[in-house]
Amino acid sequence: MDAVQKKKILFRLHQSEEKLRLSTLMLQKSAFNDSVIYSYLSIFYSVRILLIEKDEDSDDYNKIYELIENYFNPTGWTGLPISEIIKEAKQFKEKIDANPGIRITKKEAEKLNKNASLILEEIKSKLQI
């Protein structure tokens, strides 16, 4: 990995960790909708870390999802169903965006927070960050 890639990876890592921290804080405050949004963002930034090595980083969810499907799920690289997790997180985010009055349950928010943490830790472990 070259210096530019490493810098991008560390930047995305910081973004993911910060969003995960905010997700956990929102859980503690019973702000479950906000927790879900931050979990989604943590997952999104974590997955982008994986794509930097492939020189495929993008802000476009659809492109990222396609790249996850092509690069990581078929090979079982992480042992986690990353595409299923990010798809579920995006569905929750879209549900909140479409209906801000909706109330996400504590159980749902905890599940997404845990998934965001698992993905981040798995990526850090595999990349030895």
Can you put this structure into words, describing what you see?
The chain is an all-alpha fold. The chain has one domain (3-127): Nucleotidyltransferases  domain 2 (Four Helix Bundle (Hemerythrin (Met), subunit A), Up-down Bundle). Helix content is 75%, strand content 0%. It has helices at 3-28, 32-52, 61-71, 82-98, 106-127. Helix 4 (82-98) packs across helix 5. The protein is globular.
CATH architecture annotation: Up-down Bundle
Question: Could you say which overall geometry the principal axes of the C-alpha atoms support?
Answer: globular
CATH-defined superfamily: Nucleotidyltransferases  domain 2
What is the number of helices?
A: 5
What is the makeup of the main sheet? none
Residue fraction in strands = under 5%
